[in-house]
Amino acid sequence: MSDLEQILASLPIDQISEDLGEDPAAVEAAARAALPALLGGLDANAQDPAGARSLLGALGQHEGGAPSALDPAEGEKIAAHIFGDQQEQVVNRLASTGVSSGLVKKLIPILAPIVLSWLASRMSAKGAPPSKTQDQSVLGSVLEQVLKGAIGGGSGSSKGGLDAGSIIGDLLGGLLGGGRR
Fold it and tell me: Cβ contacts of residue 128 below 8 Å, gap of 6+?
């Protein structure tokens, strides 16, 4: 199972669906599209040294946190940091995959803190907890691994008709360009 599939499997889809008043299958499809975008956006930020330091600071705040206990307004701030002024274009690109842009827009702030918590726990598992280190190489390594799994056709990279590699490639290649702070 790829890292992307692990994150997706850990999501409380039924609870999110209920909170948003949306069909669970639609929420899962939108999450399947949004997760690669969030991870790609984090990677774009991590390419810039200042962005990587900022991201490590944010990860330190989410280390060991329970994503469900996070404030949705915080998720909106996280998404704004990840995508910068390109957030609307990211939502539109994800909508072009066949998922609802309105749902994606509501879902990204919910998923953003969950992804940060997952990334913080992954760094801790590699022996470099973000609150204890400013080691950008571990951060880069973790992001590279998850993105390679998504792009490289790891299990489920195109389930449900969505191609995670295409989403990440489009976002990194055109929209984000790297280095959002």
Answer: 135, 138
Sign of CA dihedral 151, 25, 73, 111: negative
pLDDT averaged over the chain? 78
CB 51 within 8 Å of CB 45: yes
Closest-CA residue to 38 (of 119, 97, 102)? 119
Task: For residues 40 and 177, give the distance between their C-alpha atoms in angstroms, rounded to a whole number.
Answer: 10
Give this prediction's pTM. Answer: 0.79
Domain boundaries, the chain: 3-176
Torsion of CA 76, 81, 83, 84, to 10 degrees: 110
Going by C-alpha positions, the residue among 116, 110, 33, 120 that lies closest to residue 75 is: 110
Side chain identity at residue 58, one-letter code = A
32 close to 8: Cβ distance less than 8 angstroms: yes
